[in-house]
Amino acid sequence: MYLNEHAKPARDARPQSGSRANGATPPRGPRIALYSHDTQGLGHIRRNLLISHALCGDGASPIILLLSGLREASAFAMPAGVDCLTLPSLGKDADGVYYPRSLGVPMDDLMTMRSRSISAALQSFVPDVLIVDKVPRGVYDELVPSLAWLHGNGRTRIILGLREILDAPSVVAEEWRRGDYAAAIRQYYDRIWVYGDRAVFDPVHEYAFDPDLASLVRYSGYLNPRDAGDESTPEVTGTDGTLCLVGGGRDGLPLAEAFLRGRWSGRGVLVTGPLMADDDRAALHTLATQRPGVEVREFVTDPRPLIAGASKVIAMGGYNTMCEVLAYRKPALIVPRIEPRTEQLIRATRFAQRGLVDMLHPDDLTAPALTAWIDAELRPMPAARDAIDFAGVERLPELLREAIGAPGRVVTMAPMGPEPKEPTHVAG
To answer: What strand order describes the sheet that includes 82-86?
Structure first.
């Protein structure tokens, strides 16, 4: 028997397995939408997935919709109650300029498509909370129509989620001025969540937030993936040699080549990432044939088992990778990206100063330098919780309750905002 394809589904239909033993339906959890523009790598969607795990791990049953600009997002395992809408994807070149990653259409057509897709999804979903990752207006202002509508409905709490470090202060100041980000936050946002420890890097101070914006800031602490309540969390073993991670892989070739050309002893695994160019990936596979005991993997959605099993880790300095390395207390050599942002360099420097990682500047990257580090006798790693606030996953449900329970703004229902414009340059 087939269902009537024209029948309208129940708005809050849920699986019967979620019902209580007495037949009563459990109260509906909050609807939460998380937006990430996703252009350079895997970091934004991976962080939003970790946040989703955190918000599902407090005995609550939120209904979570991820909006991602990364087509690979659909490959990631998601908690129960979480689904994902992927947008037509953007790429970003070495100068930070965006372009259509796959579709052969003009940039303005792509952005109109993305913006309208976001608006349609959010108007249908009507979230209680929208968490926007990093870019207050969305890339190329694609979120503005949705922000205006959601703010006008008077129901949705809108939260800006920031990794602790965006870039050098002078660069961030100029980007926020050009993008008019402070005005957007004042107009639409109820909270700013910072996924970090203000003792390591305080964006309110470093980026000179005005007092009214500073009053919206809540610090979660760094996000420890081992606290996410994920049953697949691996145990630490430390027997599988040296692991090399290059993030999404778009700019990871120099580090990957130096790793494979090194003459270090023991086993190893290199993960190239799904965004590495095909020619570069093929060259690495060829190079790996000269290194018995070294395996090349192209894409893993969850690097935690590899990190847990590694004796040492060499990686770039992305937020998620650094948190995972600290969570599993692995000796780590961080070779940060320095273009088009210095975010990773700043983070690696601050963590190295606390004795949590070793750092090698990319200008000093050579195969012999990696060999020397791998073959050296390394000290035991300290517990990250002794050096930084690492309780972000545990704290997020509390921050969510605080945001939902805060007094709402007095607003009137607004029509959809204007179509997104295409500025001369927007960094995301």
So the answer is: 82-86, 63-68, 31-36, 129-133, 157-163, 191-195, 217-219
CATH 1.10.340.30 fits 25-222+392-405, yes or no: no
CB neighbour list of residue 64: distance below 8 Å, 6 or more residues apart: 31, 32, 33, 34, 52, 55, 56, 79, 81, 82, 83
Which band of pLDDT confidence, cut at 50, 70 and 90, is reported for residue 15? very low
Mean pLDDT of 99-117: 92
Place of tokens 């909050």: 30
Does domain 242-384 fall under CATH 3.40.47.10? My reply is no
CB 356 within 8 A of CB 387: yes
Q: What is the pTM of this model?
A: 0.87
The Cα-based distances of 337 to 94, 167, 349 in angstroms read 11, 11, 12
What is the number of other CB atoms lying within 10 angstroms of the CB of residue 18?
11
If DSSP codes are grouped into helix, strand and coil, which group holds residue 27? Answer: coil
25-222+392-405 against 242-384: fold identical: yes
Q: Cα separations (Å) of 200 from 173, 195, 391?
A: 20, 11, 14
Give domain limits for the chain: 25-222+392-405, 242-384
The tens digit of pLDDT for each residue in 342-380 reads: 999 999 999 999 999 999 999 999 999 999 999 998 888
Rg (CA), the chain: 22
From 173, 237, 174, 251, select the one nearest 207 (Cα to Cα).
173
